[in-house]
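Exam revision sheet. Question 4 asks you to relate a sequence to its structure. Input first:
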Amino acid sequence: MLLCTVRDCREPLVREERRLVCARGHSFDVARSGYVNLLQPQDRRSRQPGDSKEAVAARRRLHDAGVTAPLLRAIAERTQLSSADAVLDAGCGDGFYLGNLTAESGCSAYGVDISTAAIDAAARRYSSVAWIVANADRFLPFPDGTFSRVITITARMNPAEFRRVLAREGRLLVAVPAPDDLLELRGVGRDRVPRTVADFAPYFTLAGQSRASTTADLDADQVRDLLLSIYRPSQERVPTAMSVTFSLDLLQFQPAL
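Answer key, structure tokens:
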């Protein structure tokens, strides 16, 4: 199912023991934790692109504390996955959402992120999912029409590539921060829905829209994790215990005719 990411190659990759190989001889090692790194030098803007190991660990602590469980439930209700589905999570981070969705539904699943630290953490915890380091902004290493579902949760978006890898009858779920997300830390944010719908309009039709919100009482350490992993303040802030709102606008799309 995976395609070679070497420039202008795009040949299918075949598993040979601890590596993936294409017909032109390009090969990619499978890491001990099970993921494969398909990221090419020209597809990265820094030596260590994406979230750092520290940021990934901080976000996982928040997930493990149950802070984002209501958001997971809302996403599961919107996607309604089954064992027949093939799912892609573009910008999957540490794998929390896709890993849990896969465990509940039995679907086949692939997670893509540019952060090696995030993908390694995902692979170590959720072994039933295929995890790939790649730059979804440039190219998703899958054949056309591979997936029945594509999801992207507060990540960068590539509408053209999402449409290419999604089957004709497939569905796309896009989650963007709602205006009241992290309200207590940053004030009211902008409404991202109109711009997102406009960006996807050449490829998709909006089929549904809803909002998932929850409030969590965080101690000082959890606020520190939040500042490190999710909210990047422009000024230094001393972490203190507080109640924080987490809120996502969930947009469901179907391919445009």
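Marking note for examiners. Residues 36 and 158 are 21 Å apart (CA to CA).
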